[in-house]
């Protein structure tokens, strides 16, 4: 035991003398790997698994494209990209832990983010501490911006105020007739409160509408009957709802069973994924949802991206493939233009991004956000159609009342 | 004997028209009873008289429906159990409840820390360790001081109950049937211990079926019947009372001298082996055709050889008694046969099938039923459900017929067939356990200390039932502490000592053996007696 | 561990000192792993005291972890408290909540108690989702910069050492005997005069403090907290899994369980689909073949060998 003790003391003394600074980087990264490692954390299980599947495709598609073209030129040699994807199980704790281990164990030089503000912010904060650039494409800019002044984290998505304003602009441009009375229903989640409590009422006032009722509910409510009845009684032509998909499905069904069919029905966020339309069937028709992308967009590559997705998966296209694909491309292009794996130079290259991608043009502001342009989409016969901004491709506005009259089942 | 209580002092405990009902049944019915300060009061009564309920009411485990309890003149009726304990009421449990995963020593230490000191604060830790060691020595638990209490055999657990009461040192101690299942020397030691306890503690309420303990320790005795006080008075007078004899001791016991010797209740200290005779059919052992043949088996517990080359056999329809002192290895042998204990050597054959290595449920399926010490009734099920549960799947169709046969044997169970198992008295629960074993129509029944903790009258009827089972041609192996009871029923008997078979033969042969007494009570005790 | 020779008593502080030196030798990967392991170890020690020694099987880990996380975030952001005070707040808030909840919880025995604790985290999560003042569903971003990995590691090591010390002191105190008596048979313990409510409260508060502190560290690590992650079920599952795999009611069990559980997570980190399944199967196998935990197997082996 005595020799044991001496050995231990020696070890402790050695370690203190050898390095008086705690180590902040692993030495393992020096083993010149042939592949460039990009790490990604996305929700493949849990409440947000629906988004995660699109993100996975978008990230993988971008990497596959680059590798098909031979990879990226780093310090003069072409190197392939290896994408390591981790499931964060829709848990901010796991998202942060994933980022840590992607950098420390997988030696990822750059990262791709998760979806929705809690996960994106948790992952971004972890990336900041790891001094590793991360590009995300699924967190509304206001909440992302509010978290902190970012140094290594980048976000390309829409701005909440613009999304909140879009329906009003659309009604103006499309000459939608109504009694200008609005009922708002929103959850108390991150953007539910911002949109329902602040932005929509402000926009309504600016565009000459009256909010006759503003109903808030907790994010995990399942029974909306009281709110629906209250909304019904308020006598408004326009109902605007902000909630996540499961709640949105319940609300749409409970609206129908209460016999309440508003002339204009905006169901922000939750009505966007195809899962919504699959769950409510014909009741989806006429539902307006804000968006930032549609295959019919004129941006270069938009139609091709949609075609590639449909061909590979046989599923209908979601706008989330566009922002995730673009986020990955922005990162990969920055690596290519930097021509190095030095993280600081990489970060500078991301900041310098100024190009048109399938999702639209991307240019980061000083607060590390890049706003995507907004479009209004409407569910029509099981498909989302672009109804605003007006273009040769845009479809005509469909009132939910007209849709329910056309569908004899409802 | 206890010293007479000072006349002026307030009674240690006053029970005033106390009532407790379970469902529609009154377990204690407007009971009035006084325990004098400094006395040892015996409480007897048939099974189901409400004795255990009374203990629970006094200790605070149950709250009464009506009536009042006063401890040294202070009202304690609504106090909870822990508050009563801190006021100096201690108890033991009829079915021992040690802190199973704590060592024996820790069990005592906990009690000692909460010993009654007249104030509410627990004792300082210093003297505790020493006191515990002393108690361990006195109660003969020193050798198992570091064993987990849950691993002790039943009789040792009972001993631990008493040791814990000693450590707790209450003002009023309730002893709930601690004397059951002891052999003569042990009973003598117990009596000595209780008298010492009485001197140290002051007031004791002693619930007991072993009459010798009552007569030796209690100057006054109360008799309960159906939740009411039948009578209370000087112990001798109470036991001589004809009514008490009829209710409790059984009619044949009205006068002790007139009792036929072979119907004697468990009078451990007074029975003399030679006085009993009973013509027993002498069936010569014929191992070849034996129903059960145990051949030179060895059982080890953690390195200790508990059984050494034990060989016994049981013939078809034969009743064999397994006798011996505590720790002789009787229960281990029974458990080895039913597959609950692995063999370290030897072989067991039942009806030509080797049992070694078979799981207990396979052994049961072959036709061996084991009735264990401790009753293991499913407490939430009715009597009938308990019985039906024991029916093998193959025999579901015969359910009605088998129930009928079992109820014929135990009419008391038939009357209570819709009651929940634990709502019955100890004796009734034991009958249920036996009836349950019979449901599978076994070819061999093993009874392990089934008369533990039963009133004399209940033991009587239990053994009458066993005689009935034997008459029906079922082979039996009876593990018994009490030589007389075992030998009365058995065709043959084996006497075990220190894990070996030391004596075997017909009851007559065994009774006449010179070795018997030495073997049974232990050499030390025998020499002590001689001096 | 009963009576240690004095050189063995030195062993533990020496081990801790050695562990403090690790960040000088090992890089961020090991520091992160160390943080997670030490955090889990703290939780498992806390749970072990309450469940294995006092017999109160709790599924409420998430409640105390979440409260600790919120306490650190809010006391830092709104009151500008220094880090030690923030952590003290975390411990206090968790303890206060435990004391409050005990009034209702200890009316429940056995399985009902367990289910009751399960509801705690859920109730708190719903409360936080609905309380706009505490950030609602979107949560709170900590103003202070997140500490470096080695600092987090040192904090976690300090906490785990504190937890181990506290548990050791408790288990050597007379209270431990009363706790185990309540676990084995509460009714009999009462009948010996043990104030079982106080004993159970003591164990619950102690485990809540440690869990609250572990949650506080998590808030520091993430830099952002929100109700779903902070009060998440995975805290409870991880804690119970570690404690069971290691061995209930032993001092070494939590440590062994942590090492095995974290190592398992690392081996399977690139097979997320398999991770949950393999961890589950491992847990089942442990319960089936070593119901008293892996430590019991090792202890038995070494006793024979």
Secondary-structure map with pairings?
The complex is a heterotrimer of chains A (410), B (531) and C (305).
Chain A: H1 2-18, E1 36-42, H2 49-68, E2 72-74, E3 77-79, E4 81-87, H3 92-104, E5 110-112, H4 117-129, E6 134-136, H5 141-147, E7 153-157, H6 160-174, E8 181-187, H7 190-206, E9 210-217, H8 225-233, E10 238-243, H9 245-257, E11 264-269, H10 274-280, E12 287-291, H11 302-313, H12 320-338, H13 343-351, E13 354-357, E14 360-363, E15 369-371, E16 375-380, E17 383-388, H14 400-406
Parallel strand pairs in A: 1-4, 1-5, 5-6, 6-7, 7-15, 8-9, 8-10, 10-11, 11-12
Antiparallel strand pairs in A: 2-3, 12-16, 13-14, 16-17
Chain B: E1 13-22, E2 25-35, E3 40-44, H1 51-59, E4 66-71, E5 74-75, H2 81-86, E6 89-91, H3 104-113, H4 126-138, H5 154-168, E7 172-176, H6 184-201, E8 203-207, H7 211-217, E9 220-225, E10 228-234, H8 235-240, H9 242-249, E11 292-301, E12 304-314, E13 319-324, H10 330-337, E14 345-350, E15 353-354, H11 360-366, E16 368-371, H12 383-389, H13 399-409, H14 411-415, H15 426-439, E17 444-448, H16 456-471, E18 475-480, H17 483-489, E19 492-497, E20 500-505, H18 507-512, H19 515-521, H20 523-530
Parallel strand pairs in B: 3-8, 3-9, 6-7, 7-8, 13-18, 13-19, 16-17, 17-18
Antiparallel strand pairs in B: 1-2, 1-4, 4-5, 9-10, 11-12, 11-14, 14-15, 19-20
Chain C: H1 6-9, H2 11-21, H3 28-53, H4 61-77, H5 83-105, H6 111-130, E1 140-141, H7 149-172, H8 174-184, H9 186-191, H10 196-222, E2 224-225, H11 227-230, H12 233-246, H13 253-267, H14 272-289, H15 294-304
Antiparallel strand pairs in C: 1-2
